[in-house]
Design a protein that fits this description.
mainly beta, two-stranded antiparallel ribbon, about 280 residues
Length: about 280
């Protein structure tokens, strides 16, 4: 149960509330008994289930940012989006190593906290308020995987990963990931529109981005206090997303949109050393 609010450092109503914060929105908003403003607060709930024994670990978790109750209460009225994210994992130990499968996804608009599309104060659940920066007089896009809080791919996507850790090579890891991404923006709540598209949406964009990337990594110790790690990733991206400037809505902030035929290879290498000493 998480409550997010802006414009204040402390809110006693949320701090002292003994029931899920969802109900505060009905009590305090719309002037009942005093208004705080729908756009100033947001409620998030999470549900978790896991199982562990000596050879396996299973888990499933669901994040609910918003649920369209009108489909049940007022089906003839407006239909706001379901803003939901989920993740599941299956881990199995064997004689030759540990095999894992993971899946995650999120519907469109999930990382958008505000309905006030013209309010420049609000941005998505990210570590930084913007994702386009200037370097050498050129616009540089900060990878969303480094930007979103909680789930690195953010909204409007499905991700799948298989992983293998061999028992006979300590420190070695190999995985393969396949991701499907649609249009997304952590700084423009409704992308290029002034409000949301009615109903729930997931990857219904005319063009979608596809990523297939494999990674191998190794970590080891040079001494008791000195450690190192290295990884190499390679793959291919189909319909890679590009930066699109938006000027027709209230916010006028950019988004990333998959582009048909924008196919490119992917390669990344990382190496690091860490030293740790206790006194």
């Amino acid at each position: 149960d998480v409550a997010v609010y802006v414009g204040q450092n402390f809110n006693f109503e949320y701090f002292a509330n003994p029931v899920p914060s969802f109900f505060i929105q009905y009590v305090n908003d719309a002037g009942r008994p005093y208004p705080e403003g729908v756009g100033e607060t947001n409620y998030i709930s999470g549900f978790f289930l896991d199982y562990t024994d000596i050879d396996r670990y299973y888990y499933i978790q669901v994040l609910v940012d918003d649920i369209n109750m009108n489909r049940f209460i007022h089906p003839e009225s407006y239909q706001n989006p379901d803003k939901i994210a989920w993740s599941l994992g299956l881990v199995q130990k064997t004689n030759i190593g540990t095999f894992s499968f993971y899946h995650a996804g999120a519907t469109k608009y999930t990382f958008q906290p505000s309905a006030e599309s013209g309010n420049q104060m609000f941005y998505g659940y990210t570590y930084y308020p913007y994702f386009v920066y200037t370097m050498d007089e050129k616009n540089v896009v900060l990878p969303f995987e480094l930007l979103y809080a909680g789930y690195k791919y953010g909204e409007n996507n499905l991700a799948f990963m298989v992983n293998y850790i061999p028992s006979f090579i300590p420190g070695f890891n190999a995985n393969f990931e396949f991701v499907i991404l649609g249009e997304r923006s952590p700084v423009n709540a409704w992308n290029d529109r002034t409000t949301y598209l009615p109903g729930t949406h997931l990857l219904d964009d005319p063009v979608k981005e596809y990523r297939a990337i494999g990674t191998i990594s190794y970590s080891g110790g040079i001494s008791r206090n000195l450690k190192f790690w290295a990884s190499v990733s390679a793959g291919f991206i189909w319909n890679a997303s590009t930066l699109v400037e938006i000027s027709g809505d209230n916010v006028r902030k950019p988004l990333l949109r998959p582009q048909e035929g924008n196919n490119l290879p992917f390669f990344s290498g990382n190496f690091g050393v860490s030293f740790r000493k206790s006194f």
